[in-house]
Specification:
Layout lengths: L7 E8 L22 H6 L9 E10 L6 H15 L6 E5 L5 H11 L6 E4 L12 H12 L9 E5 L2 E4 L4 E2 L8 E2 L7 E4 L2 E4 L22 E5 L7 H8 L4 E6 L7 H12 L3 E6 L14 H4 L2 E2 L5 H13 L5 H7 L1
Bound molecules: succinic acid (SIN).
Succinic acid binds next to loops.
């Protein structure tokens, strides 16, 4: 096979269970994430050679629960650099599943190119019986090598499905079909080399996004509402100098009265407050379950609290005045 005409895809490895290792092949929970290097991950998938020419880089070797904003800055910057090269046709990022949805949305908003960027991961370590990483990696590279994936923003290829970075979320602690896009559904599928998209992405992303990666990240934290929620955490965050608070509210973003009072006080001290929901699907309507006009808060729409935090950090970092505008748009 003449491979010189195949697309050239950069695979950036950051760690995760896809690079996890356990002493026993029957172990799918007790293992160490992020210890297997990118070359070994690629060697496990000989079929990659028929799909793309691979350029591999080890960006990090972490369990993604330990993801940091500094690593986000380094990763987004490297993705932008690589995509600016004429000899790179797309990027695949291997990642842990735990914070994949946050990194994917961050890249969706800060990568400035139309070339495909695809994240993938695994629920089972690389040493496990029926490890899901190798096929997920092959499928991610297949999507990144597909011309149809261009211009759709950052994608997540997982368990044969293709998701939009904005909408996808992890929904299971152990199942290999852990990822869902609850309000919107999948964008398409990838199987046996075939990539098929069934819908498009309508909100702005990548080159059309007004946001750029930063190394000056504002402090934004998440608090939840629940029975008998107190104001202790909000008051502590305000005292610590927080710039924004995302609330994982009950139902349609409603909040305990005590928490609501604490947040109203926080807004008066210049803290941006965004209402999301702890429910896991649905949307939070402005002036629905809380009076945002009176409170000075913003509703997150269909973004979950973790993604709302990403958008709020980028918006505060770039000095956006009307936060509701960006939550309505992105
Ligand atoms: C991680 O997020 O790095 C560990 C869990 C996983 O990848 O499934």
């Amino acid at each position: 096979m003449n491979t010189s005409s195949l697309p050239r895809i950069a695979v950036l490895a950051t760690g995760g269970t896809i690079a996890g290792s356990a002493g026993d092949a029957s172990k799918t929970a007790g293992y160490k994430a992020g210890v297997v290097g990118v070359d070994k991950l690629l060697d496990a998938v000989p079929a990659l050679g028929t799909v793309a020419r691979i350029h591999a880089e080890q960006i990090a070797s972490i369990d993604s629960k330990d993801m940091s904003v500094a690593l986000w800055t380094a990763l987004a910057s490297r993705v932008n650099e690589l995509l600016a090269q004429d000899d790179i046709d797309g990027v695949v990022v291997t990642h842990g599943t735990d914070t994949l949805e946050e990194t994917a949305y961050l890249l969706h908003l800060t990568v400035k190119h139309a070339k495909p960027v695809v994240l993938t991961a695994a629920m089972r370590p690389s040493t496990a019986l029926s490890a899901d990483g190798p096929l997920n990696l092959l499928n991610a590279v297949t999507v990144a090598a597909s011309k149809d994936a261009a211009g759709k923003g950052v994608l997540v290829a997982f368990n044969n499905q293709i998701h939009c970075a904005r909408d996808v979320t992890k929904t299971s602690t152990y199942a290999v079909d852990a990822f869902r896009s609850p309000e919107t559904g999948v964008l398409g599928f990838v199987q046996d080399g075939r990539v098929e998209f069934q819908r498009t992405v309508v909100r702005p992303h990548t080159a059309a996004s007004e946001f750029s990666v930063t190394d000056e990240w504002p402090m934004v934290e998440i608090v939840a509402s629940y029975a008998d929620a107190s104001r202790v955490m909000v008051d502590a965050l305000v005292a610590a100098g927080v710039r924004g608070i995302v609330v994982a509210g009950t139902g349609n973003g409603s909040m305990h009265a005590t928490l609501t009072q604490a947040l109203a006080d926080a807004v008066r001290q210049g803290v941006a407050v965004v209402r999301a929901s702890r429910v896991g699907s649905g949307h939070v309507m402005r002036n629905g379950a809380a009076n945002d006009d009176a409170l000075g808060s913003v509703s997150a729409g269909t973004l979950n609290a973790y993604k709302a935090r990403v958008l709020l950090m980028l918006a505060l970092a770039s000095g956006v005045g009307d936060l509701q505008r960006v939550f309505d748009a992105y």
